[in-house]
Amino acid sequence: LSGDWSVVVEGHEFLVWSSLLAAWSETFAAMASHDCLERTSRRLTVKDFSASAVDLALQFIYTGECDAEDELLVEVAAFADKYGIVPLLKECIQRCEAALTEES
């Protein structure tokens, strides 16, 4: 695995390309371009989401596909909302709505 940034959550470190994160998220773009701790350390520490949810969100950024199980959809959606990954947020919302419709 390679990358120029790392995302650290629950003791897991994910190597990522900042340019790819920035392409999907204005929040990540701002972190990569402004003088802030994340830019200088090239590291983002995530404390409010599970490693599983972050991994799924990062997989979406790389593949454009959301493979989250239903029980993680809300958490992945919350991560997408916090970091401004709009296509992922929309995908999670659509899947949640579909699940509600099927169960109704």
Please describe what this structure looks like.
The protein has 104 residues and is an alpha+beta fold. The protein has one domain (5-103): Potassium Channel Kv1.1, Chain A. It contains six helices and three strands. It has helices at residues 18-24, 26-33, 37-41, 51-63, 70-82, 86-103; strands at 5-9, 12-16, 43-45. A hairpin with a 2-residue loop joins strand 1 (5-9) and strand 2. The mean pLDDT is 89.
Condensed summary:
By secondary structure, this protein is an alpha+beta fold. It has helices spanning 18-24, 26-33, 37-41, 51-63, 70-82, 86-103, and strands at 5-9, 12-16, 43-45.
Total strands: the figure is 3
What CATH architecture would you give?
A: 2-Layer Sandwich
H/E topology pattern = EEHHHEHHH
Q: Which class best fits the helix and strand makeup? A: alpha+beta
Given the structure, what is the number of helices?
A: 6
CATH class: Alpha Beta
What best-fitting shape do the alpha-carbon axes yield?
globular
* Estimated share of beta-strand residues: 5-15%
List keywords for this structure.
single chain, 104 residues, alpha+beta, Potassium Channel Kv1.1, Chain A, three-stranded mixed sheet, 6 helices, globular
